Amino acid sequence: MERDEQDTIIATRNLSRTYTMGKVQVQALNNVTLDIRRGEFAAIMGKSGSGKSTLLHQLGLLDTPTEGEITIDGVEISGLSESESTMFRLEKFGYVFQEYAILPEMTALENVYLPAMALGLSRDECVTKGMDALEKVGLVARADHRPKEMSGGEQQRVAIARALINEPKILFADEPTANLDSTSSKQILELFRELNRDIGQTILMVTHELEDADIVDRVIWLTDGAVVERAG
Amino acid sequence: MTSTTTELKVSAFLAYKFTAKGNRGTTLLTILIMALAFVNLMFTTSVFDGMGDATEKQVIDTLYSNIVIEPADEEVYIANPDSVVKKIINVPGVIGTSAQYVTGATIAYEEQSGAWSIRAVDPDDERTVSLVPDMMVEGEYLSKYDRGEIIIGTEIAGGHGGSLEHTSLGGVVVGDTLEVTFTNGVRREYRVKGIFDTNFIQANQLAYVTEKEMESVLGIHDMASQILVKTDTKGEEDRFLKQFVELGVHEDIKPWTVYAGIVATLTQSFDALNALTGAIGFFVAGITIFIVIYVSTVSKRRQMGILRAIGIKESIIIRSYVFQAVFYAVCGCIAGLVIMFAILVPYFIKHPMVFPMGNVTLLIEQKAAIMRSIGLIISAAIAGFLPSWRAVRETILDAIWGD
Questions:
Q1: DSSP H or E stretch at residue A67
Q2: Which of A196, B10, B153, B311 could form a disulfide with A89 if both were Cys (CB 3.0 to 4.6 A apart)?
């Protein structure tokens, strides 16, 4: 039991999220209880509107659940203030969004090391770590390029490098391949797989592509905001 | 590295990237607008300061010099003015003195007449304290032993396009004879030796005769109504006053400012106008920056959401926009000063504005420039803060995925 607790990096208990839209209340998540183990590569899947992204947002501290508890890396996160929550995200999380969410005014390297800079690292340290992260995603040669000079797949890999720079406990990915062609999508998923396998990176990924289930350790299937099936 | 230093560093980094690597057209246009806002703020002030400065110069150069020594209370004249001059002439910084008689008189020419002040001077001494001898537009200035001759300002002579043409003698020229009736009843005729134009309405209403001429009119000798003292600097009159008293000058000693009520009145009026135009200028500049930053925050709404999602603090993001706004303002101030010094000041030196106090050019006071720069920067900082602060109020999800 003790070993299980140490292995669990995310634990939710009776997690619910209800949105009020006008006079209508929409229950996006309904009593979700689940554990994610350290080093696990899990996919959150389900039909459109099933609550996949909502669950990811709760776990990634981008939104606040209406009810329930979330414990991440041993910390019950409902007690965190806004600024503590921000620091928690900076120190422990990495994010990859559906769109290539990198800043157009910065080079690939600058985009990557921005979170390290926010942690207080010196410029030299930022550059070193940034180049290491770019090496992990195979983009060292594009370090000085700006987003407009890169393909969608390359931009998404820059976003992944940025997510990795602070050596996060958990990498959250919200439909990271949705805007990519099949070749780029495959490269991104393979990159996730490698990161998970080589450095034990915990990855929680929302996807609607059924074939992505083949590459992950586990699928968390959501229907109408509730976990109905778990597949290995 | 402390967290504050880190935050400042990241804010500055973001601001630099957004400004330097963003849309250059927007950046240049914003700086240009800030420069024009700064010029707008400085221009009015510089005109007012230029008018004040021109008036001060005229009062000193053509009316009262730097210091005026008048008879002690209850005395009409300073007796033995040379003894007073001897006491002060060697004070370091004193570069000239002129003992004068001042009296009122009615001056008539043909059918025209009017009441004006006549000063009686030693022309050689007068040259050390006044620029009137250099401002003759017709004829010549007085010589030490002139008798029966007078010089008059253009506002007395008339015919020179003065502001008081209707009260003038209607077009006196050199060589004409004027009939002068002094306040003691003595009436004499004087040949007009010269006409001067100082560009200063007050100075142009004076007439001058020689000291010896006036002594014969008044029937007195070795007296003076006032002694004008020229110093090598302006603004240190109080120091000279103190020194003169210490040297045993018992007469009434006054700085030129006492006689320059017009300057004080102008300054008060200008200060009120300056405050008004300044407030409007700061408001316009602030609104401009607000709109620029507001548009930027709207267009970068999703980007700001993503920055917050990856753990960049709201304060860092807000500060980055404040830094941008301050950068625009600082560049605007610098560009504005360049426009002022490289274009407007030289232009107005070449084409001065003509006012009753003389030709006015732009005067850029260091203090005014600094105060307006600071004001503009503060306005910009506030205008940069408000939209960015508002933008980070919305939830991260709304910022990234909202409508």
A1: strand A67-72
A2: B311
